[in-house]
């Protein structure tokens, strides 16, 4: 019995507590990301934004959530009812599962697996199935066209993202996300206090990754999947109430995930901005990670407030004719430099 408690019950309770803590933090973060987005858009358009519900509008996300919960779920008469309901659940669950391998600190990660990058790449690839299921099950031409656009968009940009990940892998010598962060702890140019983040040598790849992340999450200026002017909302045009809210939650959690990934791959994850002792305490790691993720999220919102929506042919041209050759050439250059200069990371 004692062995059962120490070998199974306590580790299970510890993991379950960690999962609940991550999910609660994500839900709160997602709720206030919607408020943050509306405030940033309002500032860009010289408006006040939400400021009525609670002090400074801080209770607006709660009011929005209650409104969606209290509405009736409407399922179209010609829809496949099972697939129609499963699609938003699949999108939401996949957006949550991906967070299992995200390290918040050197010792603060739910599953510190050696193939974390591959795991995230696989989960992000599965996300398109929820959208295709929603488009097909809605029995609506607008929803179906939106889902087809989403599938084409995701395939186009995942190839470039794959090359970006391989480039980071070559520099770090590991697919483990924690080890990728630790590989950035050494300062550049022999200066120990300078951050050794990969954003400096891999700046073009960081830009490709960020823009591809916008396309992967169907955010502006690549929100052709929703395309209100043409598709009336796209794949979730028939959704309402909690089924709509699950898609909404999934989209915003994917935004946070891409921002966290950008922080880990290029901005040093939980590492401080300057390698000095008083900024490098263990408890400060999650704070640096949070601030870097918020910075990337702000860039998401700034792009939405600034750039007009791309045409579909422009979206495809950017993905296949610019990002794909650029990422492939840069990968070859980085590999050549690492081999030629003898800078390949030592593994094992």
UniProtKB/TrEMBL annotation:
InterPro entries in the record: NADH_UbQ_OxRdtase_su1/FPO, NADH_UbQ_OxRdtase_su1_CS
PROSITE patterns, sorted: COMPLEX1_ND1_1, COMPLEX1_ND1_2
EC code(s) of this entry: 7.1.1.-
Reactions catalysed, as given in the entry: a quinone + NADH + 5 H(+)(in) = a quinol + NAD(+) + 4 H(+)(out)
GO cellular component terms attached to this protein's record: plasma membrane
Domain of life, source organism: Bacteria
Pfam families cross-referenced by the UniProt entry: NADHdh
Localization terms from the record: Cell membrane; Membrane
Residues annotated as transmembrane: 12-35, 82-102, 108-134, 155-177, 197-215, 252-271, 283-303, 323-344
Membrane topology: Multi-pass membrane protein
Key words of the record: Cell membrane, Membrane, NAD, Quinone, Translocase, Transmembrane, Transmembrane helix, Ubiquinone
Enzyme class, broadest EC rank: translocase
GO terms of molecular function: NADH dehydrogenase activity; oxidoreductase activity, acting on NAD(P)H, quinone or similar compound as acceptor; quinone binding
Function, as annotated: NDH-1 shuttles electrons from NADH, via FMN and iron-sulfur (Fe-S) centers, to quinones in the respiratory chain. The immediate electron acceptor for the enzyme in this species is believed to be ubiquinone. Couples the redox reaction to proton translocation (for every two electrons transferred, four hydrogen ions are translocated across the cytoplasmic membrane), and thus conserves the redox energy in a proton gradient. This subunit may bind ubiquinone.
Subunit structure as annotated in this protein's UniProt entry: NDH-1 is composed of 14 different subunits. Subunits NuoA, H, J, K, L, M, N constitute the membrane sector of the complex.
NCBIfam families: PRK06076.1-2, PRK06076.1-6
Family annotation (PANTHER family): NADH DEHYDROGENASE SUBUNIT 1, NADH-UBIQUINONE OXIDOREDUCTASE CHAIN 1
The protein's name: NADH-quinone oxidoreductase subunit H
Source organism per UniProt: Aliidongia dinghuensis
């Amino acid at each position: 019995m004692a062995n059962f408690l120490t070998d199974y019950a306590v580790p299970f309770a510890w993991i379950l507590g960690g999962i609940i803590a991550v999910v609660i933090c994500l839900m709160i973060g997602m709720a206030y990301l919607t408020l943050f987005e509306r405030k940033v858009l309002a500032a860009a358009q010289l408006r006040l934004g939400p400021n009525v519900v609670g002090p400074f509008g801080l209770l607006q996300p709660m009011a929005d959530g209650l409104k969606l919960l209290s509405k009736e779920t409407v399922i179209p008469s010609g829809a496949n009812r099972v697939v129609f309901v499963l699609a938003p659940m699949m999108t939401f669950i996949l957006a949550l599962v991906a967070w299992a391998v995200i390290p918040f600190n050197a010792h603060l990660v739910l599953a510190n697996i050696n193939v974390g990058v591959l795991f995230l790449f696989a989960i992000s690839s599965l996300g398109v199935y929820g959208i295709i299921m929603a488009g097909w099950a809605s029995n609506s031409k607008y929803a179906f066209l939106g889902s087809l656009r989403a599938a084409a968009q995701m395939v186009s940009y995942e190839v470039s993202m794959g090359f970006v990940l391989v480039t980071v892998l070559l520099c770090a010598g590991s697919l483990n996300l924690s080890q990728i962060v630790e590989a950035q702890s050494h300062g550049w140019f022999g200066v120990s206090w300078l951050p050794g983040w990969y954003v400096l040598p891999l700046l073009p790849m960081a830009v490709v990754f960020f823009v591809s992340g916008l396309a992967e999450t169907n955010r502006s200026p690549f929100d052709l999947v929703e395309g209100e002017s043409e598709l009336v909302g796209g794949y979730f045009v028939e959704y309402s109430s909690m089924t709509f809210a699950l898609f909404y939650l999934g989209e915003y959690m994917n935004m946070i995930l891409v921002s966290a990934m950008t922080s880990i791959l290029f901005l040093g994850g939980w590492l401080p901005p300057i390698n000095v002792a008083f900024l490098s305490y263990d408890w400060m790691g999650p704070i640096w990670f949070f601030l870097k993720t918020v910075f990337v999220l702000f860039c998401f919102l700034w792009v939405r407030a600034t750039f007009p929506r791309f045409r579909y042919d422009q979206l495809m041209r950017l993905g296949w004719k610019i990002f794909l050759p650029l990422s492939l050439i840069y990968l070859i250059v980085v590999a050549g430099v690492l081999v030629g200069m003898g800078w390949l990371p030592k593994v094992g």
